[in-house]
Amino acid sequence: MSASDLKLTQLSHGGGCGCKIAPAKLQEILKAVNLDAMSPNLLVGASTCDDAAVYRINDQQAMVLTTDFFMPIVDNARHFGRIAAANAISDVYAMGGKPVMALSVLGMPINKLPTEVIQVI
C-alpha cells in the first residue's frame, strides 16, 4: 500500500475531540480518586475538566501540562501530524501558558500502516 492510497480517516471511529471520553463519563470513571487532594501545588486539575493541568513550581512559576489523543480527521499523514500538534499546543495557550517543550504519544496500527507513513505523522 502506498502513502497516496492510504486513507487515515478509515482508521478512525470518529473525528478529533469527538473521540474522547465525555467529561461527565470521565468523572464517573474517576470518582473513587480524590482529584482535589493530589497536591496543594496543583492549581488546576482533572476536577475542572479544563484543557490542561496547572502545577505551581514556586511563587512565580507554574507548569501547564497536557496530553492529547487525536484521531485522524484528514487522510494526508503530514497534515494530520500538524493538526494534532497544533491541537495539543493550543491547550497550553488556552490555559495562558507558553509552550517550551513537547512529548509525543502516537498510537497507530503498525500492521496496517507502513512505517514510512507513521514517520511522516
Describe the overall structure.
This protein is 26% helix and 9% strand. The protein has 3 helices and 3 strands. A 3-stranded antiparallel sheet has the order 1-2-3, with no helix packed on it. β1 (42-44) and β2 form a beta hairpin.
Global Rg: 17 Å
Major beta-sheet overview: 3 strands, antiparallel
Task: Give the overall form.
Answer: globular
Counting helices, strands and paired strands, the structural category is alpha+beta
The total count of strands amounts to: 3
What is the residue-mean pLDDT, rounded to a whole number?
81
How do you describe this structure in short?
With 121 residues, this protein is an alpha+beta fold.
Give me the secondary-structure topology.
Elements: H1 23-29, E1 42-44, E2 53-56, E3 62-65, H2 77-94, H3 115-120
Antiparallel strand pairs: 1-2, 2-3
Spell out the key features of this protein.
121 residues, alpha+beta, three-stranded antiparallel beta sheet, 3 strands
